[in-house]
Amino acid sequence: MTQADSxxxxxxxxxxxxxxxxxxxxxGMAAGGAVLALATxxxxxxxxxxxxxxxxxxxxxxxxxxxxxxxxxxIEEQTRLxxxxxxxxxxxxxxxxxxxxxxxxxxxxxxxxxxxxxxQAWASxxxxxRGDEEWMFEDAGPTLVxxxxxxxxxxxxxx
Length: 159
Hints:
Blueprint: H1 16-28, H2 31-39, H3 57-83, H4 87-110, H5 116-132, H6 141-158
């Protein structure tokens, strides 16, 4: 590696070559090593990431947010109905929104992001969900690892 003789001759850290080298090294790692490499990237909030027609993950995040909001509203209605003794209706009101929330979550964890910003938004959003609903990840480990490996492969191809 060449040494800089002044600040002006030092290449910027955020060059395409640096990104390509990181991505190619990350893609070549075993899944566990790739996860460790990604752990060093500070997460950006999913809401701060710009929507991109090149990466379907942003639409999936938005779809899951909407399904989750509907499900949480249904849970509130279920609680209200339970409090007035209407137990049968209480359970019926959450069934559809529950299935929609679970379906959107599964689609989200099964779809590999196509871009680095998409991968950051995806990981950040999944971490947000984990903070509230850790149980949702109990059986998701193998799917998440597979999706992450595919996402890293997508990034290696596009760089």
